[in-house]
Amino acid sequence: QVQLMESGGGSVQAGGSLRLSCAASRLTSSNYCMGWFRRAPGKEREVVATISTFGTTTYTNSVEGRFTISQDNAKNTLYLEMNSLKPEDTAMYYCAADLWVGRSCYTQSFIQAYKWWGQGTQVTVSS
C-alpha cells in the first residue's frame, strides 16, 4: 500500500514561512494526483493545492500567490512552500494521493476524497 508521511510543520509568526514535505513510498503508478489539504479546529477539511503527474498545479483562492506546491520525482517527495503566513492558515496539514482518472486533480479532489493520506503535520501561525 502507498504510504505518505508529512514533516516540516511548526509554529511561526505571521508573515513567516514554512516548507512542508511529504515522503511517498510505493506509489508506483505513472499517472497520479497529489495534493495538500488542511483542517482547522471546528472547520471542514479543505483542499489547499494539487499537482498532477504532468506538473499541473492548482491552488485554492486563499493561498494563491503565497503557497507553492511542487514535487521531486527523483526523491518521491511532495512539497508545499508557504510564504506570508497568516493566522488563518493555522491548521493540520495533510498530503494525499490518488490515481489519476482523467479529470484535473483539483476537480478530482471534490468528486471523491483521495485514496491515500498521511497523518498530518501541524502548522500554527501567531499574530
Report on this structure.
- Strands 2, 4, 5, 6, 9, 10 and 11 form a seven-stranded mixed β-sheet that branches.
- The chain has one helix at 105-111; strands at residues 3-7, 10-13, 18-25, 32-39, 46-52, 57-59, 67-72, 77-82, 91-99, 116-117, 121-126.
- The model has no long low-confidence stretch (mean pLDDT 95).
- It is globular, with a radius of gyration of 14 Å.
- With 127 residues, the protein is mostly beta strands.
Strand content: over 45%
Structural class: mainly beta
CA-atom Rg in angstroms: 14 Å
Sequence of secondary-structure elements: EEEEEEEEEHEE
**Low-pLDDT windows of residues:** none
Percentage of residues in helical conformation: under 10%
Characterize this entry briefly.
With 127 residues, the protein is mainly β. Helices cover 6% and strands 50% of the residues.
Keywords:
127 residues; mainly beta; seven-stranded mixed β-sheet; four-stranded antiparallel β-sheet; 11 strands
Secondary structure: elements and pairs:
Layout: E1 3-7, E2 10-13, E3 18-25, E4 32-39, E5 46-52, E6 57-59, E7 67-72, E8 77-82, E9 91-99, H1 105-111, E10 116-117, E11 121-126
Parallel strand pairs: 2-11
Antiparallel strand pairs: 1-3, 3-8, 4-5, 4-9, 5-6, 7-8, 9-10, 9-11
